[in-house]
Amino acid sequence: MPAVEILKDVYWVGAVDWNIRYFHGPAYSTHRGTTYNAYLIRDEKTALVDTVYKPFTGELVRNIEEIVPPGDIDYVVVNHIESDHSGAFPEIMKLAPRAKVFCTQKAADGLRKLYFGDWDFNIVKTGDRLSLGRRTLTFIEAPMLHWPDSMFTYVPEEALLLPNDAFGQHLASTFRFEDQVDGSMLMEEAAKYYANILYPFSSLVLKKLEQVREMGIEIKMIAPSHGMIWRRDPGKIVAAYLKWAGGEADPKVVIAYDTMWQSTEKMAHAILQGIAAAGVEAKLFKMSVSDRNDVIKELLNARAILVGSPTINREFLPTLAPLLDDLRGLKPTKKIGLAFGSYGWGGGAVKAIEERLKGAGVELIEPGLGINWAPTEAVLEQCVALGRRVAEAVNAR
């Protein structure tokens, strides 16, 4: 994709990755591809903010060449050193050998260890400024959003925030701006991004947004490192982050389960029936055919998670393990839940699920429901009643 002028003399010079389907190794599904956004600012001095994933170095260089010779770049700002944003950094520095690098101390340390080189590093802290001429770059440290080296770059003259991974979405498109794509789909991708990457840092998100407010920073445009640029209503994504980071959620239930001979599946559907009968929204996911990243995205805006499995070797089915492992690391806030399942002789799945949910910070609202062999009509009625109680608990939050 060619370079795009997003503001006067401010250009998107990144790359579009149409075919990527898993990100962070196999950790994150990207059904709609992604972008690696980099930005070039022309002034009396020229600054490049971030680079791209190494396989897209050629695309980045071509886009820069549409605007200036790469050797004319005076400053390279590294907001974040993860490979999808710094992979092209060594090549850019070869093409712009005079360029000074502006980043945090941890970023400088990491770049040396990632790429086995040394450059003209200028270490910045929150509030430090770099004049380009008519414009100024203001730096804001943002550790653990989502790596220790992370920072934001702000252009006060344009009220432009360049926050790297914050406010991003994995979405490949020929368009560059949020008002050019379907809004519902965009917010789904933004929610999925937050839930699967930033969730465990929610308290830091709240603190950073409060700090930005206290600094009196006006924001008219947010240009993240992935996906669309927020130009029409950047306040919409900021408000969403405040909601998600604060643990606010809708009266909704996520039911994640798997089944061996349909006993647990029958329980799941009966519980769903009880929740629906009480007028509460619920979504049902059979994990052997569901994407765990999409399930986690649904949980972001839900108040409760129910997890069900039959027992195998005193444990739950392995198809549930990736979801439960992720939840333990992501630590979703203000969630309630419970476990359910079936067993033949020894049991153990319900207890094992409960331990995982507690480890993820989920509040168990009542003891799990485990049934022996196939559910009778009476047991299914118990499941419906359980669903009604879950709905009551959700509405009480």
Automatic annotation (TrEMBL):
SMART domains registered for this protein in UniProt: Lactamase_B (SM00849)
Flavodoxin-like domain segment(s): 253-391
Gene Ontology molecular function terms on file: electron transfer activity; FMN binding; hydrolase activity; metal ion binding; oxidoreductase activity, acting on NAD(P)H
Keywords, comma-separated and alphabetical: Hydrolase
Top-level taxonomic group: Bacteria
InterPro entries: Flavodoxin/NO_synth, Flavoprotein-like_sf, Metallo-B-lactamas, ODP_dom, RibonucZ/Hydroxyglut_hydro, Rubredoxin-O_OxRdtase
Record family assignment: In the N-terminal section; belongs to the zinc metallo-hydrolase group 3 family.
Protein's name according to its UniProt entry: MBL fold metallo-hydrolase
Organism expressing this protein natively: Desulfotomaculum copahuensis
Lineage: Bacteria, Bacillati, Bacillota, Clostridia, Eubacteriales
